[in-house]
Amino acid sequence: MVSEDKKYVESLKKDDFSAFDALFKKYSESLYAFSLSITKEPYIAEEITQLVFMKIWEKRSQIDEHLSFKSFIFSITYSETISWLRKEKSEKQKIENFGGQFSTVSNETSYAIEFNNINSLATEIIDSFPEKRKEIFKLSREQGYSNKEIATRLNISVKTVENQMSSALKTLKEQLGKDGILGILFYFIMFH
Q1: Which fold has domain 2-94?
Q2: Contact at 8 Å (CB) between 183 and 114?
């Protein structure tokens, strides 16, 4: 058996394709079964088996005919199978990472759309305020005036400004609260 392999390898090193074919017929099924037992993927095991024999043909001049060809070929098969497993694990990790990034981007996009919707709703609510309340609210929240500055500017009492602001914020909180947690969050970010 070993001497038979030795003869095949000696012929193989002389570019004898029939020796290569004989080695393929002798070992391909065993190599396939060995690879399959590790990968659990018939297609991959077949690919690895073919790859091993391609390497045998390409490196034929470097094979040592005095060493066990069987050990040599199984060693290459094991190496290629482990290499495939590492690559597979790396690819799965990349896919998971990409999936995670996509999920994050998707969530950020979703939140941005929801935030814009809530912002539009807030603008509609503010625009529906009575004229004086709307003016007081915009001076306070959009232009940053204090209650005292607004009172002086509009020639009204500070108490009136406080009452109008209180009513405006109450309405916003009630209306935006209907749009869930992001509505409430937006209310606190923008109006507190």
Answers
A1: Rna Polymerase Sigma Factor; Chain: A (1.10.1740)
A2: no
Amino acid (1-letter code) at residue 108: E
pTM over 0.70: no
Q: Show the 3-state SS of the chain.
A: CHHHHHHHHHHHCCCCHHHHHHHHHHHHHHHHHHHHHHHCCHHHHHHHHHHHHHHHHHCHHHCCCCCCHHHHHHHHHHHHHHHHHHHHHHHHHHHHHHHHHHHHHHHHHHHHHHHHHHHHHHHHHHHCCCHHHHHHHHHHHCCCCCHHHHHHHHCCCHHHHHHHHHHHHHHHHHHHHCCHHHHHHHHHHHHC
* Separation between Cα atoms, residue 97 and residue 22, nearest integer Å: 46
Q: What does the longest C-alpha to C-alpha distance in the chain come to? A: 112
Per-residue pLDDT tens over the stretch 82-130: 888 888 777 666 556 555 544 444 444 555 566 567 777 778 888 889 9
The domain over range 129-191 is classified in CATH as 1.10.10: yes
Q: How much of the chain exceeds pLDDT 90, in percent? A: 31
- AA letter at 9: V
| pLDDT average, residue stretch 53-69 | 89
d(CA 54, CA 23): 12
> Of the candidates 20, 47, 15, which has an alpha carbon nearest to the alpha carbon of residue 31?
47
